[in-house]
Write a structure and sequence with these properties.
Elements lengths: L5 H23 L8 H18 L4 H14 L11 H4 L2 H5 L6
Length: 100
């Protein structure tokens, strides 16, 4: 596996935002959809969480990145709970936050 880089993290964040937008259309076309939005969202968010951990980002930076994603996403794309171990003191404040 390639080493984790900040560029890879930025790319995954952009992919999450694009998928969030597309998943809204998929939800609207539920009668013809063959894929559930979470089938794509979960691996993307998992990759984001993995990169945050591999890059050894401070919990403050992870919280800022998640807050930016949450502010720009309109659907339940990001499950904040999977970041609990990386967020330290921020986990309490973000727990139960509506995911993007």
């Amino acid at each position: 596996m390639e080493p984790a880089t900040p560029d890879a993290l930025d790319l995954v964040e952009e992919a999450i935002l694009v998928w969030d937008d597309l998943s809204g259309h998929l939800r609207d076309a539920y009668h013809i959809a063959r894929t559930e939005p979470q089938e794509i969202a979960e691996p993307l968010v998992g990759a984001h969480r993995y990169l945050c951990g591999r890059l050894d980002l401070a919990s403050d930076e992870i919280a800022q990145r998640l807050n930016r994603l949450l502010a720009r996403c309109h659907y339940d794309t990001v499950d904040v709970d999977i970041y609990a171990d990386l967020l330290a003191e921020h986990a309490v404040g973000m727990a139960g936050t509506a995911g993007c």
